[in-house]
Specification:
33 strands, 7-stranded antiparallel beta sheet, alpha+beta
Length: about 600
């Protein structure tokens, strides 16, 4: 990969960026470019490339297909490209609508001139800039130039301008603003400010600065503005089965399958974009159910705004990998909408693509059959072919007061960006004793547990029967289960009297669950198996005893109920109800 040294000054911050040295062939295949211009003629593109090369490093030019020629910077590693894009945009070195381009977007190279102009090869050490050749357009290019770039006088340009609608005039102002030449209101009125911005744009593009755009110049300006859409092949797609038509990035996604209520358009390009069309018959309950289900999926990251109205909703989710946006609405007994999934770090282009999809979204006279995709192989971790978001780790915990405070094991709260109780309730760490293996959680909003643990006031008798209540398989079964065993010793193998040894075959998900005796009193909390890495015989488990738990709770300002040893035994069914009511699934999310 080329090594660049560029001092890029932000308005208030002097920023120096040093880019990666040459990389291996494997990583070079992931190289990207930054497209900063697209021109409809080779001569214009060469001139633009020379202009940029006079002040920026790593400028090159490639044919884009369809009679267009692009000026790009690079190649870079993806992270480096995003930094260059951010800084160059901020200081006005490149247009605001510049974007990251991939190898497949670029065809034969025309600048700098090489002995053999071929499609882009693997990134290499920075080439010495060669003097650009004065290449002439081929005959067919000249013909296209004549037909697409008519030569108009200022008077002719004014006459053609008078035929523009208000919306077309506003579109030109939007394009001028996006290119950084116009900073007033978008009103469709070509006053002094608009004329000045037109002159500045003409001068920057090598045209005579008349302040009146010719038909051809208007097309060049709009094509510049629409370059992000052109780069992904935005085109109208009609899905008759789903009953939806809209503009879609057709170079990046292609239809794959139907799995009601979705029509899946999966990625076919380097970008990794995806589109889902939403189509199903239903009512408000259907709409609201879809709103809830979508937020459990991997394609909808947790961070981002979401809004639900009486007959529509929008959901945006973003993380360091993707940004997804979903909109859906109910009309005439049909729920329809779409989801756009786009890679993070390409926000300007994503915004343009999303706006085009929203503006073009059209309902057609059909709706997806609810049975569509019914023959697809089912998976408990999938909803209509989409992966359910899963926590990094899930363990058990139990309620210790009427506000929903929870005791659990320390390992389940380590390195989490979010902690939930039973998947749906946010919680925060109130205290964490990593050495003792005890964590205390406080729900974001007070909860009303069905049952609350009562800590035993006495030590358990050796060989007495106890049970651990826990989510043995980390929530897969949906409810806690009881695992019965016995107290093997009131201290650990190393003599720690705060920890009891159990003769009980627990599962990983049981860790953090309460250890209950036949009276319903809680004698301790199950610890993770092999906390110190030792290999122990099957059926050996350890639990922090009630006295140590009470001390940790008191230190955190939480008062737990107690139960005396005089309490009588409960029937098995009552023990099961009590344990199920106090036990909660604790999940750690990345």
């Amino acid at each position: 990969m080329k090594k660049l040294f560029a001092a890029l000054a932000l308005p208030l911050i002097a920023l120096a960026i040093a880019f990666a040295a040459p990389v291996s062939a494997q990583s070079s295949r992931d190289a990207v470019w930054i497209q900063i211009a697209a021109r409809p003629s080779l001569r214009e593109a060469e001139s633009e490339a020379r202009t940029y090369a006079a002040r920026l490093p790593d400028v090159s030019g490639y044919a884009l297909g369809g009679g267009w020629y692009g000026v790009v910077l690079g190649p870079y590693a993806r992270d480096d490209a995003e930094r260059v894009l951010q800084v160059y945009r901020a200081e006005g070195q490149i247009p605001r609508d510049s974007f990251i381009a991939f190898r497949r977007n670029l065809r034969s190279q025309f600048y700098p001139v090489a002995a053999d102009a071929t499609p882009p090869a693997e990134p290499e050490a920075a080439p010495a800039p060669a003097a650009p050749a004065q290449a002439e357009p081929e005959p067919q290019q000249q013909a296209a130039l004549q037909s697409t770039l008519p030569d108009e006088s200022p008077a002719e340009a004014r006459r053609s301008e008078r035929t523009l609608s208000r919306e077309q005039r506003m579109e030109l102002q939007v394009a001028l603003k996006a290119a950084g030449f116009y900073n007033s209101g978008i009103d469709g009125a070509f006053g002094r400010g608009t004329r000045a911005s037109m002159r500045d744009w003409q001068a920057a593009r090598g045209f005579e600065p008349t302040g009146v755009l010719t038909t051809a110049q208007r097309q060049v300006l709009l094509d510049e503005y629409n370059a992000p859409l052109i780069s992904v092949g935005m085109a109208r797609v009609e899905d008759a089965k789903a009953g939806i038509a809209l503009q879609m990035p057709a170079d990046e996604v292609a239809f794959d399958r139907y799995e009601s209520p979705f029509a899946h358009y999966t990625s076919k390009g380097d970008l990794g974009a995806k589109v889902l069309l939403i189509s199903q018959p239903g009512d408000k309950r259907t709409l609201f159910g879809l709103y809830d289900i979508l937020q459990t999926l991997e394609i909808v990251p947790l961070d981002g705004p979401r809004q639900r109205g009486s007959d529509s909703f929008t959901i945006e989710g973003r993380n360091d990998r993707i940004v997804s946006f979903t909109q859906a609405s109910l009309k005439n007994g049909e729920v329809k909408g779409f989801t756009l999934i786009w890679p993070a770090g390409d926000e300007d282009r994503r915004t343009r693509v999303l706006a085009a999809m929203q503006a073009s979204f059209t309902r057609l006279g059909s709706v997806l059959d609810p049975a569509a995709g019914g023959d697809v192989v089912q998976d408990i971790d999938l909803v209509s072919g989409l992966e359910i978001r899963k926590p990094k780790l899930s363990r058990s915990g139990f309620f210790v007061d009427g506000n929903g405070s929870v005791l659990t094991t320390s390992d389940v709260v380590a390195g989490c960006t979010r902690i939930t109780l039973d998947h749906g309730y946010q919680a925060e760490v109130a205290a964490n004793d990593a050495a003792g293996g005890i964590a205390i959680l406080r729900p974001a909003e007070p909860l009303a547990p069905a049952a609350v643990a009562e800590l035993s006031t006495s030590s358990p008798r050796l060989q007495s029967e106890v049970a651990v209540s826990g989510f043995s398989y980390e929530g897969v079964l949906g409810a806690p289960s009881l695992t019965w065993g016995k107290i093997a010793d009131v201290k650990s193998l190393d003599g720690n009297t705060d920890v009891a040894r159990l003769d009980l075959a627990a599962q990983p998900g049981d860790a953090g669950g309460p250890v209950i005796d036949s009276t319903g009193a809680v004698h301790g909390m199950l610890l993770p198996r092999q906390p110190d890495g030792k290999q122990l015989p099957e059926g050996v488990s350890f639990a922090v005893n009630a006295e140590a738990l009470r001390g940790a709770l008191n230190a955190a300002g939480v008062t737990a109920a107690s139960k005396s040893p005089a309490a009588g035994s409960l029937p098995s069914a009552a023990i099961t109800r009590l344990a199920s009511g106090m036990t909660v699934l604790v999940s750690c999310w990345e």
